[in-house]
Amino acid sequence: MSDITPAHVAEFLAGARDYFEDVAQPYTRVDGNSVHVKVVPDNGEAATIFRALVVEVPVYAVAAAPVTLPAETARQLAYGYAGDDIDDWTVVVNEYTGRTRWSSTHHLVIRNEAGEHFADTYRRGLSESQETRPYEDVSTATFTPVVPEIKVATEWVTPKAAQAEQGGAS
After folding, report:
1. Is-contact 67 81, C-beta < 8 A?
2. Which DSSP string do the residues of the chain spell out, in sequence order?
């Protein structure tokens, strides 16, 4: 396994290699904006996890000021999914962030045709308040300019040897 280096993994990620001469198989997995790389040797040894990360981040247009949308447009966006286009706006992220007894809270990120991103937090009714709609009691909704922030996450896993001792994979 010592024959596999970060340079080999970089070649694999760049598309120059798709195997390592029957020595090991690299695996990649995409989770949101994260790419996970693992190299598993063909001889049954433990996987090598590389601690190097190179990220090429696209350049985003940055808005100079918040944008105000009609409540109906904001509501349609709030009911949309990532990739939905509504009135020249695209839903980028629409994620659940929490709840109270009567409502759920969501974070909505949208993009205009110029590539600028904006975000707002809204609530949806739950339970006895399920008829409550996002942006129901306002005539307009103000979205704040946002930019993405790349974060690196560490995942702790049980080594293969310990899994075998425990009687299986976890």
Report:
1. no
2. -TT--HHHHHHHHHTS-S-BTTTEEEEEEEETTEEEEEEEETTSPPPB--------PPP-B--SS-EEEEHHHHHHHHT--TT-EETTEEEEEEEEEEE-SSEEEEEEEEEETTSBEEEEEEEEE-GGGTT--TTTT-SEEEEEEE-------------HHHHHHHTS--
Contact partners, residue 63, CB within 8 Å, separation at least 6: 116, 117, 118, 145
pLDDT in tens, 121-157: 999 988 776 778 899 999 999 999 999 887 767 778 7
Q: What is the pLDDT of residues 59-118, one digit of tens each?
A: 678 899 999 999 999 999 999 999 999 999 999 999 999 988 888 999 999 999 999 999
